[in-house]
Amino acid sequence: MTKYPTNEISLTQETVPFPIVMHLTTGQLTAVLPHHHQFYEISFYVQGSALDVVDGQIIKASRGTVICKLPHRIHETRIVERQPYTKFSLMFDMDILLESGMEYELKRYFYFGSGREQHTSFQLNKTETDLVERLFHEILKDFESDRLFRHAYIRSKLVEILIELARSQGRDRGKDSRAEPLNYSNIGLLGSKITQVLHYINSHFLMDMSLGGLSQQFDVSTPYLSKMIKKITGMTFTDYLHELRIEMACSLLVSTRMNILEVSGEAGYSSFKTFSRVFLRKKGMSPSKYRSKQHESDSTAGL
Fold first, then answer.
1. Do 279 and 247 lie in a common domain?
2. Whether residues 228 and 246 fall in one domain
3. What pLDDT does 113 receive?
4. What is the span of the domain harbouring residue 41?
5. Which of 236, 258, 272, 286 is most deeply buried (CB count within 10 A of its CB)?
6. Residue 4: which residues within 8 A CB-CB, separation 6 or more?
7. pTM for the structure as a whole
8. Number of domains in the chain
9. What's the rounded Cα separation, in Å, for the pair 70 and 91?
10. Residues in domain HTH araC/xylS-type (predicted)?
11. Are 66 and 43 in contact (CB under 8 A)?
């Protein structure tokens, strides 16, 4: 019987009172089984060491390691020689950054601009680690309290963390060429209808949907919706939907033993022929070849 990774359905914008969730795991000696969820996740290791596995790739994590995980990427944590580890897990709905036009650039950088080919992992230096650790503790303090305006405070600290992580990589100097600069005079509209549409696509991409259906559902013209999706994501609606589904399929291919037909259905495709054609176009190889190549890479790396 095929074992499916757990879908953490409790982590959605509809099921939590505020779309930012934080956990501090202290002295952990228990492995975290494969799972995925709708939220973007940042894992920040404070102490000890562990193996963080994302889409089948093993990352040796220690103090200062940061791992950014896109929604629905299958991930788990493995113990290293019975050594305990301490890490922050910050999970949030990226659409919270659409509330401000300027901060939307952060979403485009981490979600669209960083590329969906792989998750991002990197090692902070001592100064950066100390700074980011302080910001995480500040979020946790308010997250566990009922202080006035705590949601606004937590959101502001999240923005600080994202900026510091981007700067630590030196990537804040460049611009993402895949999407046009935003016209901030349109942010009022982006913060309503288009925000809702993008959130719906990101949350329901495994279900049947069409541009025309979304236009009717959210009462916005099809041409305008098509234009705005392309402006924000750098892709057409169809390409963006395929992008989400194919990346989900890649995650399943390398993280599970599901057969290709099962992967196709689990990734939202009702037609195996369409899945195979789109996968070949997106990845330049068949799903079975992709799986074999990823496993060969892991073996070569001695993992």
1. yes
2. no
3. 53
4. 7-173
5. 258
6. 256, 258, 266
7. 0.70
8. 3
9. 10
10. 195-293
11. yes
